[in-house]
Amino acid sequence: MKENLIQASAEPLINYFNALIPLNAEETNLVTSLFKPRLYRKRQYVLQEGNVCNEFSFVVRGCLRMYKIDDKGNTHIIQFAAENWWTVDIGSFHGRKPSALNIDALEDTMLLQINYDNLILLYTQAPKFDRIFRVLIENSYVTLQNRLLQNISSTAEERYLSFMQVYAHLSNRLSQTQIASFLGITPEFLSRLRNKMAKKKS
Fold first, then answer.
1. What pTM was computed for the model?
2. Is a pLDDT exceeding 90 seen at residue 129?
3. I need a surface site. Which of 3, 35, 45, 146 has the fewest CB within 10 A?
4. Can you name the residues that pair with 115 across neighbouring β-strands?
């Protein structure tokens, strides 16, 4: 029964990898054996500031946020991760050092996680994954670079429109406060911005 659950929950990840580069039976078995399914309840931490990030996480279902709380108690959301997305504090994970970030579940969330030692084992036994994860990290870097550029060169309205392009499927699952935190504006300003844009359309 437990084995069936693991097989079933690994299927989205195997489909994800197959869409990038087809896996053979041995590689599929490696993924099934090295990635561990884990359910996080809403508001449960996946990673807490000060701890080492031990897992690279793939979201099977649910939604996570990665964020930092500053000295004034303000929350700054860096990333949302929903179905078929990855999340990791890459500096903490590869540097084996305490994280400055938090990751928690915004909904009950099922993850498939691989720890550092097993990821190295995966690279050794199936070098194809070394390439796959390198591409994942490169894509993540490009996304963060674009977001940084947008934050220093775009208006709040432009950032909101960009958010709605990338996260349209999540907009009804996130609170106004969470979206505002991601955009770097207050919830009140986001409300005024939405009203202004709605009037433009009418």
1. 0.90
2. yes
3. 3
4. 55
